[in-house]
Batch of 2 targets.
Target 1
Amino acid sequence: MQMKTGVEQSVYAILILNMLPDKAVLPGEAISQQLGASPTYFQKLLRKLVSADLITSVPGVKGGFKLKKKPEDIRVYDVYLAIEGQQSLYSSSGVLHGMLELEEEDCCCLLTNLMEEAESSWKSVLKRETVASLYEEISKNYQPKLQLLQEWVKEKMVL
């Protein structure tokens, strides 16, 4: 399993948007530049986050993006779902069936239950972490660098 970089970029974009004052927005181009993301690809990610009701898009010359929900109400899992969708990480391809020459009705995949349990555990970890909890951790561990990022946000934001 390999998660696409879009999930990572989206989580950090939301963390940046978390730093905005209430009535401010941040242009998507500025966020993509800060994250080192392709502007075209990043616009697709932002559209997915808007569709998932995690962020809001404000059109116009003074437009940009801002959070639609409170940071404590945005779980990392919500971001994952917005970018990756609901599909399961594992899908049996019938190797056991072919290996043992089983009849269709006798076939099961020994890995299915194991993978479902692992996926459930992984999801529960992502569900317990929120944008607020991640921001708190960044504030605690990287305060001087966070202040520089906050200054950048103030410089790039649009009121």
Target 2
Amino acid sequence: MSTPATTPDHGTALAVPGATTTRLRNGELRRMVAEQLAKDPTAALTPGTIARRLGKSSGAVGNALVTLEALGQARPVGTKPVSYRATDKTADAAKTATVAPRTPTAPASSAPTPPPAPTALVTRPVRRPNGQMYHPRKLSGLSDVTALRRLRAAGVSALMYGPPGTGKTSVVEAT
């Protein structure tokens, strides 16, 4: 009996047989690629060539080159195969890994955000978009429409399953 194959944890996969790699910090691969371009500014290097030198994925190197091009730190010189050359800004890019800081999604404040206010209880029929009336059913002491509205307000997903014709679409349209 053989042992099932397992995949290594993220960041520990081997890029080159015999080499051990770890996950790079943000912007580090881009810096390494810029360094390769800056070593020989007149050479036209392909993503594959740089990837072999660094022991990294050619796809990741290609993405780094596209970003460097967008920043004006590399310039494309060929299309078949795709190749890049250094610019006057490449040497600066090779010195430090530049990472754009993440923008906060919510305003930073010392007080935690209060939970959303509970939605009102729905006990009467609700008009669906097609004009038909949906009559709420009891679900754990609440109407199904109220329960789904509260889940939506809290950002919780709900999975509904069952045979056709049991009202799954109707209750969603009523919420």
